[in-house]
Amino acid sequence: MDENQVSNKVIGAAIEVHRTLGPGLLESIYENALAYELELRHIGLRRQMDIPVVYKGRRLEGHFRVDVLVADSVIVEVKAIDCLLEVHKAQLLTYLRLVDKRLGLLINFNAPVLSRSIRRVVNNL
């Protein structure tokens, strides 16, 4: 599957989670439910991946965590907040650059209509 096919499957799974649980829960609950829904659909994923940060050739102390990496191609950043901000999009773009991936999905489950709270973020590499 290419990134667009993967992202379509992730969005479908996220909509199912949102339809079942609704808004108002913690991010960790939505992340767990999304991971389970993707597993039910036989889509490979890795959760809470520790990623080292390299600055000018030197590996820095500390790391960051990617919420979900789906099919080794799409990063999913799960949120449960009042509204998505530009800084959330910038954060996901930074993650994409650091792990050399092209597509990420920013999904805010704390919304009455989930489809209005999904942002595609593209790293043009």
Determine the number of helices (DSSP H or I, runs of at least 4 residues).
Answer: 3
Give the overall shape.
globular
What about the largest sheet? Answer: 5 strands, mixed
As a percent range, the share of helical residues equals: 25-40%
Question: Spans with pLDDT under 50 lasting ≥5 residues?
Answer: none
Helix and strand run:
HHEEEHEE
Could you say how many structural domains there are in total? Answer: 1
Between the first and last Cα atoms, what is the distance in angstroms? 19 Å
Topology:
Blueprint: H1 3-21, H2 27-40, E1 45-55, E2 58-70, E3 74-79, H3 86-99, E4 103-108, E5 118-122
Parallel strand pairs: 3-4
Antiparallel strand pairs: 1-2, 2-3, 4-5
Helix pairs in contact: 1-2
Give the gist of this structure.
The protein has 125 residues and is of the alpha+beta class.
Keywords:
single chain, alpha+beta, five-stranded mixed β-sheet, globular
Describe the structure in your own words.
This protein has three helices and five strands, in the order ααβββαββ. It has a five-stranded mixed beta sheet, sandwiched between helices. The chain is globular. With 125 residues, it is of the alpha+beta class. The longest helix has 19 residues, at 3-21. β2 (58-70) and β3 (74-79) form a beta hairpin. The protein has helices spanning 3-21, 27-40, 86-99; strands spanning 45-55, 58-70, 74-79, 103-108, 118-122. It has one domain. α1 (3-21) crosses α2 (27-40).
